[in-house]
Amino acid sequence: MDILGTILWPIKWAIEAILVAFHTFWMAVGLDGDAGLTWVLSIVGLVLVVRAALIPIFVRQIQNQRRMQEVAPQLKRIQDKYKGKKDQYSREALSRETMALYKKTGTNPFASCLPLLLQMPIFFGLFSVLSDAQRPAHLAGVGFLTADLAKSFGTSSLFEIAPLHMSISTANGNWAVIWIAAVMVGLMTISQFVTQLQIMSKNQSAEMKASPMYKQQRVLLYMLPAVFLFSGFSFPLGVMFYWLVSNFWTMGQQFLVIRNMPTPGSEAALAREIRLAKKEQRRGVVADEESGGVRLIEEPKNVQRQQPVGKNRAKKKPGNKK
Q: How many whole angstroms separate alpha carbon 167 and alpha carbon 158?
């Protein structure tokens, strides 16, 4: 076993355990154990387990992003201090003061990439499990994936026309694989683009939008499709299903965070304040800050409009003398 295989061994063991557990569940429900759909649903279950386990990491990522936004003005002042200075001393001073600021505030500019980095071993582990399923029975799995299950996984096809172990690069003219992979690449690109766009357009404060980090995010926004094109060409359909479902999870998770825990000073935070204010108005309850109590806002009553009185009628009224 090589070094990479040794590193991936425990990851593959965990992946096989989760895949087999979900595969057993779907078979108990009544699905065909050898069908590609059953294995795709098992991969979806793997995504749900992995992403649920990463929720604490995601919460820490959000907290780090908040701190990064708080220190953005200080970071900009340091960068402005050495703006235009290209000598060795200035570059070292800029790096030293920047790292000192990160250390003092407990921030990490690379923390936002942590959930993706933690998932990369899962991608490669699933790729390895799917590849090993094509090998002889005694080399197929490292744990719960028995020889029969490995054969079932390795030979399964979606809709009986698109083998899960194939990619565009190994399709050999199988247009079903090519078209399904192309559709998934398009969906992955759209979901990732929407996720990043909603962060940049709605969940960034004015200070953050003025920082160099915001410009870097905009560059990444348009570079990611190239990454998905590469993955769509090289990765098997089974691995791409994992990536696609994971992207949809990220998009939904980010939507909920932006809606319920927006960045202070952002467009999303203002929208949330307006939404909460309207909700309070609909309930008809307003907190009384002075007394600490609660008072009800009474709905305006329909008051009948008093008709104007003409001069002739006014003269006839008692006590109205000319």
A: 13
